């Protein structure tokens, strides 16, 4: 089964994905309204799985709601909250519901979120989770016992951080994820496109897997400072913060910055992954400003 996202990869299209946060509660209306706006603008909509260790609706349930509306989901799955039994059960359940795209993540530390008293599991981090997905696709569970009721056909990807301060560590993790079967990579927030270019030309070169640069909509200088303080591994440079501070309309300036970054990414890698927390409805405007046309049906 080849879906919209996989088909775009096969056809070597410039890939556009966007991240949407599921609701905190039982009403998915806002999430669905935002996802509808993205339906013909992106190849896949990522649904987060407890991002920043903050409680939200199950990513699998949210992805199923998107599927029912003809929207291509990319389901994020983390190893933080589940042991290997629960992970396998959820992956089988996701597959049975028609979900095919999985982003395998380790998960953010609990101390960063709204339930610091919760117990972390972390039995499997992202590389081992990718390997597990490969086993399930081959028709075996983590103990190499056959899946008597059918193998899975999940299309698994992973995260990558081209701005990592340790190039050797970055290369080691990237190659491990390639070996574990990652079919695509979505990056953390990118602000240094020289580092992205270095990553593409020295580490990812020849890997034959699409790399999507993470583009984040900054709403204000205050928002940028908050991210620097609270999001692990992210550093918004001072020049961007100053630009937002000086802007008469900071949100509009953030939209311009995001569009400029998309144009920069087009010259370097195979796609972009857009993150516009609580402002996902502005993603079509960002894409228009970046000269990215609506997708053909």
Summarize the structure in short.
The protein has 297 residues and is an alpha/beta fold. It has 11 helices and 8 strands.
Describe the structure.
The protein has 297 residues and is of the alpha/beta class. It has a single domain (4-289), classed as TIM Barrel (Alpha-Beta Barrel). It contains eleven helices and eight strands. The protein has helices spanning 4-10, 29-38, 59-67, 84-96, 126-138, 167-179, 193-202, 221-230, 238-246, 250-266, 283-289; strands at residues 15-20, 44-47, 73-78, 101-105, 155-160, 185-189, 211-216, 271-275. An eight-stranded parallel barrel has the order 1-2-3-4-5-6-7-8, surrounded by six helices. Helix 8 (221-230) packs antiparallel against helix 9, helix 9 (238-246) packs across helix 10 (250-266) and helix 10 crosses helix 11 (283-289). The chain is globular, with a radius of gyration of 18 Å. The two termini are 18 Å apart. The mean pLDDT is 95.
Question: Main traits of this protein?
Answer:
single chain; 297 residues; TIM Barrel; 8-stranded parallel beta barrel
Topology:
Elements: H1 4-10, E1 15-20, H2 29-38, E2 44-47, H3 59-67, E3 73-78, H4 84-96, E4 101-105, H5 126-138, E5 155-160, H6 167-179, E6 185-189, H7 193-202, E7 211-216, H8 221-230, H9 238-246, H10 250-266, E8 271-275, H11 283-289
Helix pairs in contact: 4-5, 8-9, 9-10, 10-11
């Amino acid at each position: 089964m080849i879906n919209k996202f996989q088909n775009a990869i096969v056809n070597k299209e410039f890939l556009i994905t966007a991240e949407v946060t599921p609701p905190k509660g039982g009403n998915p209306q806002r999430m669905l309204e935002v996802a509808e706006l993205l339906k013909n603008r992106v190849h896949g909509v990522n649904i987060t799985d407890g991002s920043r260790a903050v409680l939200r609706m199950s990513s699998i349930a949210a992805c199923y709601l998107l599927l029912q509306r003809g929207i291509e989901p990319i389901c994020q799955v983390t190893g933080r909250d589940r042991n290997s039994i629960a992970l396998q059960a959820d992956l089988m359940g996701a597959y049975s519901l028609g979900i095919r795209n999985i982003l395998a993540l380790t998960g953010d530390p609990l101390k960063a979120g709204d339930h610091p008293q919760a117990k972390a599991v972390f039995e499997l981090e992202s590389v081992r989770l990718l390997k597990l997905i490969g086993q399930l696709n081959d028709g075996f569970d983590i103990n190499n016992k056959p899946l008597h009721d059918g193998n899975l056909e999940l299309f698994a990807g992973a995260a990558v951080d081209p701005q990592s301060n340790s190039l050797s560590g970055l290369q080691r993790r990237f190659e491990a994820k390639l070996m574990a079967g990652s079919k695509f990579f979505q990056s953390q927030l990118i602000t240094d496109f020289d580092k992205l270019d270095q990553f593409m030309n020295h580490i990812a070169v020849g890997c034959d897997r699409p790399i999507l640069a993470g583009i984040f909509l900054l709403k204000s200088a205050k928002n940028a400072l908050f991210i620097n303080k609270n999001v692990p591994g992210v550093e918004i440079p001072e020049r961007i913060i100053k630009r937002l501070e000086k802007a008469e309309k900071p949100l509009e300036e953030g939209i311009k910055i995001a569009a400029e970054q998309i144009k920069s990414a087009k010259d370097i890698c195979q796609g972009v992954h857009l993150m516009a927390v609580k402002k996902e409805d502005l993603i079509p405007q960002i894409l228009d400003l970046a000269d990215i046309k609506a997708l053909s049906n």
